[in-house]
Amino acid sequence: NITDQGGGKIACLSTESHVILNRRSKIDKKMLTALDHRNLQVVYQPQMDIATGETTVYEALVRWQDEELGYIMPDELIPIAEENGHIHAIGAFVIEEAAKMAVTLSNKKHDAIISVNTSVREFNNSQMHEKLTNILEKTKCPSNKIQLEITEKFALQAEQEHSIVLQMKKLQEDGIQFTLDDFGTGYASFRYMQSLPISKVKIDKVFIQSLLTMPKNKKLVEGMILFSKTMGFYVVAEGVESEEQFELLKEMGVDAVQGYYIGAPVTAEEIFQNL
Ligand code: C2E
Ligand code: MG
Ligand code: MG
Ligand code: MG
């Protein structure tokens, strides 16, 4: 396959990259309709607080199932949405679902915080604070029932754009906590961990998954926990898949665990059934 890229440049694409490009462009084109028709779904994964043994947090994770394209997981969906700008609408959809979920759980006498992943683009033009405030008002969800997860890529950007930090601080004043997700995988800077209004860190699953097999990794996780606790953060370990990992992490002093061992992401209905 030959594509003319203009400027006299000719690129050869393998059949495989053609398939990927084709899928990408279909995802791009179908996204708005999927949003309009509410074909997107949110699943929830429990997070267990070690001290109480209770599920105190559920993480909201977006899903999209399309007749033709099958499951489109967030790692595929989100980067495309960030590019075409639909990330704002997707974010609003997920936050609204999360807020409704928090209210329903509370009505069922099960208080929990719903944790929502955010992209830094959603904070452009001071949009996030307004968006969240409107949704919380509309759904009658108390602001302390929603928390936001940011990545290290986000934190790096926030350091450069003051308006992002201002919004984060305003949200924090409203009672919304921030979690630094995928801790340890990105451009970890100790500086922003001090300057941004973050109260929790989530150690990335790559470190948890090699905890028992790589002695050096165990040392690394010990160091991450010690550092985070010294800084006053609530420490979460994600990707916990076995009892051995769970017991070790408990011993190492993490505050909460999340992963298939505790529970996989499931629909709201499934959560209600098992309350
Ligand atoms: P994340 O926030 O770090 O979420 C954890 C991912 O690991 C989820 O994948 C979850 O299903 C998976 N996971 C949970 N427990 C285990 C385990 O024990 N073992 C293993 N191997 N995996 C586990 P998912 O749902 O595919 O999401 C991938 C990423 O996409 C998320 O990583 C998050 O950064 C992003 N994402 C998901 N939903 C949204 C959203 O609504 N908005 C934005 N901006 N990003 C989202
Ligand atoms: Mg997350
Ligand atoms: Mg993570
Ligand atoms: Mg991740």
Automatic annotation (TrEMBL):
Residues 24-275 form the EAL domain. It comes from the Bacteria. This is EAL domain-containing protein. It comes from Sporosarcina contaminans. The chain holds residues 277 to 551 of 551 of the full protein.
